[in-house]
Design a protein that fits this description.
Blueprint lengths: L2 E8 L2 H16 L3 E5 L10 H32 L12 E2 L2 E2 H6 L14 H39 L25 E9 L3 H7 L13 E5 L3 E9 L3 H10 L3 E3 L5 H56 L5 E8 L5 H11 L5 H13 L14 E6 L5
Antiparallel strand pairs: 1-9, 1-10, 2-9, 3-4, 5-7, 5-8, 6-7
Helix pairs in contact: 1-8, 2-4, 2-7, 4-7, 8-9
């Protein structure tokens, strides 16, 4: 499973024994894989400042999670032709996300533990804000390019009634630069090919004999040329419509066709040039944002543990990875039973609820007798 529970309990003898009991029970029952989650000794400051940081870290946690989800989605969108390789590009410090979380070590170089907690949090907040700002500007530019390209590509798809004709017709299909003559394009249903060949010359006066030619087909019909005098265009269109032939409004403009083809070539080239740098940026900064997110989780555990268990700072954090979804209810019951002594009322109410209310969904906001946070990596799959 790509789900983790990050908990902490006081570090006194009684609770260290409780942690041992938890490890023994969860191991024997194959409920979870547990590892110590090492958090450095931070400068505590005042309890008032910790209360403020608790609220700020909660918001920063939500923001960081939202950001890495958006970055993961951007990787999926950029790697449109290689979606099967997305996961190998979503790494943290060069390793898969599960390995990073289970082997987490606080990065002292980026976030010095000797600094005041408020400074560490401020550094994380500024880093994530900068990544989000860069993500917006880079993805907006790429998506605008991608949308323009898709719009051009859509023009070359569809049926003969809607698609662009610039990649179908050629200069030789038209009578050009004539004061009197013009070549029209007519869409004829497939069952009516024979009728068209027999009647097109007589649909109007002044139609050039033997001037029709089939130049393209789709599943429904064909695109024919026909040449006639300019002054009978309206009459020809009316008679063609009466016979269920559709004159497609198109006039050959070599300059416009060349411009459209050059635009497609330019957009394809620009997209190719931007693809590599954008994907590299996403990979590097997804890693940075994910690492920051797990550091935020560590900070939340520290702050909440001090607020919950008091001073001096003495607690043990543990990372649990439930083995399967079906075992999470039993795992929750084991934890609440082992640490019931930390808060009898909270433990009892949760145990009762988990037994009596089928399908109860426990969230990060539920109150447990121990400090608890949830990390769900499946959201990035």
């Amino acid at each position: 499973m790509s789900e983790f529970w990050l908990i902490s309990a006081p570090g006194d003898k009684e609770n260290l024994q409780a942690l041992e009991r938890m490890n023994t029970v969860t191991s024997k029952s194959n409920l979870s894989y547990n590892t110590k989650f090492m958090i450095p000794d931070f400068k505590v400051g005042t309890l008032d400042s910790l209360v403020g940081l608790s609220d700020e870290l909660g918001k920063l946690d939500v923001f960081a999670e939202s950001l890495i989800k958006r970055m993961a989605q951007s990787v999926v969108e950029v790697m449109e032709d290689a979606k099967g390789k997305v996961q190998e590009n979503l790494l943290a410090n060069g390793v898969d996300l599960t390995s990073f979380v289970t082997h987490f070590e606080w990065d002292m170089a980026k976030y010095p533990a000797k600094q005041p907690l408020v400074s560490v949090v401020d550094t994380l907040a500024k880093q994530l804000a900068q990544i989000e700002m860069d993500l917006k500007s880079r993805t907006v530019a790429y998506n605008t390019l991608k949308t323009n390209l898709e719009n051009l590509e859509k023009k070359s798809m569809g049926n003969l009634f809607t698609r662009t004709l610039s990649d179908i017709v050629s200069k030789e299909d038209f009578v050009l630069d004539s004061e009197y003559l013009i070549t029209l394009l007519v869409i004829v249903p497939k069952p009516s090919y024979s009728q068209w060949q027999k009647t097109y010359e007589s649909l109007s006066d002044m139609v050039v004999p033997r001037s029709t030619k089939l130049i393209a087909e789709d599943n429904e019909g064909g695109l024919f040329t026909v040449t006639l005098f300019r002054k009978v265009i309206d009459d020809f269109k009316t008679k063609a419509k009466e016979n269920k032939f559709t004159v497609r409004e198109f006039y050959y403009d070599e300059t416009e066709i060349k411009r459209e083809r050059e635009e497609m070539t330019r957009l394809l080239s620009d997209k190719k040039q931007q693809y590599g740098p954008l994907l590299r940026w996403l990979k590097v900064n997804f890693s940075e944002a994910f690492i920051a997110w797990i550091h935020i989780k560590a900070l939340r555990v520290f702050v909440e543990s001090v607020l919950r268990y008091g001073l001096p700072v003495n607690f043990q954090a543990v990372l649990l990875q439930p083995h399967k979804k079906s075992s999470t209810k039993r795992l929750r019951e084991v934890l609440n039973s082992v640490f019931r002594h930390l808060d009898e009322v909270a433990a009892a109410s949760i145990l009762d609820a988990s037994v009596e209310i089928p399908g109860l969904q426990l969230s990060n906001q539920d109150y447990f007798p121990y400090v608890y946070f949830h990390i769900d990596l499946s959201l990035l799959d």
